[in-house]
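hey so i finally got around to running the thing on that chain from the lab meeting. sorry it took forever, my laptop kept dying and i had to restart like 3 times. anyway pasting the input first so we r on the same page abt which one it is
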Amino acid sequence: MESDSVSELFPLFNTATPETIEWFLSVSEKQNYPPNSLLVSKEDWGKDVIFIVSGWVNICALSRDQEITLDILAEGDYFGEIAVLDDFPPLTRVISLSDVQLLKISAQRFLQMLFKDPQLQHRMLQLTIQRVRHLYRRLKSSSQSTERILIKTLMDLGKRYGKTTDKGIEILKVPTQCLATMIGVDAIAIETMLEKLRKNHLIEIDTNNQTLSLPSLKQLQHFSKQL
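ok and heres what got predicted. didnt touch it at all, straight out
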């Protein structure tokens, strides 16, 4: 991977110096995994910071023997930095939802990188604030109808990670069970709501490629307001 590609792909490195990016590439380890691979277990937190070059991952936790999706991350994002900075690691794990390509940097080298480049520290603080704001919006919308929460979840994934195609904004067709536990309803309800959106031409599902397209975010938002 070239230095220019790193700064374009990862918002964290938008303001990093070329020397910082070169050093990051020299000490990070490239890894590839198929879908449903355990990327980080509860015991692994705090050892590395992991950057997603391509693919989608599920941040999840076990609750009463059920796996609960806490968040879904994709290309350009990263995880593990909080556990490196905090002595109390999260009781979660990370599982790939698709083929993924990762760049992994050890905790010690990640901290060295932060100390070397003050701009990187500032940028990470900005992105952390954005994550907190994102979490706040999710919590604030939890009292709304499940249909509206589902639509907001799909729109959020589209805005954060979607790719523009001739069908609109394309995202992964997230497994129904992941969406169900993330929103707090059963999987059958999610399937019913997705089918309703499909019949209203607000989403298109490609089961062969496991993708979901959002033809118009504006129309989807308008539909949501009518619920």
